[in-house]
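Archive transcription. Copying these from loose printouts into the bound notebook so they stop getting lost. Printout 1 of 2:
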Amino acid sequence: MSSVKLLIYGLICQQFALMAIFVPQPVWRQALIFLIAHALASGLFALLLTSVFPKRFNQEKSGLLTLFFCFAFFVPLFGAVAILITMVYFRKFKYLGERDEFSTVPLLPFMQEATAMSAGMGEGGAWSRLRATALPRAERLMALMAVGSGSGFNTSSFLQLATGDNDDEIRLLAFNLCERHEQKINHSITAAMEGLKTASDPSERAVFCRTLAFSYWELVYNALSQNELRGFFIEQSFKYLRQVQELGGDDPALSVLLGKIHLIRHEHDQAGEAIRDALAKGASPSLVIPYLAELAFLKRDFASLKSYLAQDPTLRLKPGIGPVAQFWRR
């Protein structure tokens, strides 16, 4: 039914509803005729307004239809007038002028490095090849191997997503790479545990505890732990780190790890103390300054954030943190 017919039938039904109120007749008949005619008019007006919505709202049309019907039915006359005004706005005035504020959008600083092709196959390029099922299997396998050769949260996430691939070879290789990486860390933990049981010299025990602290953290960092085990691994890393410190081990790497643990536990003050301690012990500024900047951002201390990023001019040249440093130094 065309919009014009819907409008005409809706106005006729609404007129019948109004006439039912003023024509002398029994009250029950007035109420019945009014409700029927008004309900028909409300339904037609709701259909009229819903029909002018873009096609992307097709899946939501039933909800829109219900909303407009209720609006027109429970707000007699004024609801129908409001629906007609809304329809006219959408059909006529909505598209008369161009919205200049959205005509041009500058490229964000965080996206600029993605516009240039890298010399090798990065995570983004490898994952785009993995998702392209039309590519030859050999090229997709090479992309998966490129992802598997790295480490970190993104790499583990990519491998876990690849385990759901439709290609059996890619899925099995992804499972194998995930398992191999996890087995390597678990073997390191097992060997350190066995060595810790027999070690008696404090310096030797400190070496094994250090291995355990960093190995457990690697399970967390590489997202190789389930949600229920993640907290346990964090606590184990913290436990063995404290044992290293009690046995006399004290170096910048341990302080950085302590800061990361406090940061992931949302203990921001302790994380800041540990990171600044690592910097005082000689840790590379390019390694610890991003964490200090992150802590300043979490505290909404933007002045300190800019100050931290300005301490190391080389940060703006590094991938990942580079666009962030350039943005905040402007």
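Printout 2 of 2:
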Amino acid sequence: MQIIGYEGVGPIRFGMSRDDVRTALGADFESFKRSPSSIQPCDHFLQHECFVYYDANDEVEAVEFTKPATPMLDGLDLLSIDFTSLVQRIRQDDPDLSVENDGFTSLRLGIGGWAPGADDEPPESIIVFTRGYYG
């Protein structure tokens, strides 16, 4: 799915209702809370291998992808490139990229990645988020 920074990804737009997301994706899903502190349950769309997170108003605030999903940014599948190369590529568009041992967050682009494995492996997940989701 194509990422459009701070707007959404694929047919999902930030601020969409849960029902609108379910209609737009038209796929089987499972709804559950990822943690005890979650405000709303997320929806896991198995066919798209994505998790859609909702805010207190039950509107989309973030979407997280895992393999075999293909979250695309400027023609690049973010889950198919090794973590080190991905960070170098993202840093070209966001010199203020925040990188930690197991991930990165780009407030400029509205994306983040989690890579608990080796730097020479692709990240395990990519998250696309709305303004204010982090920080």
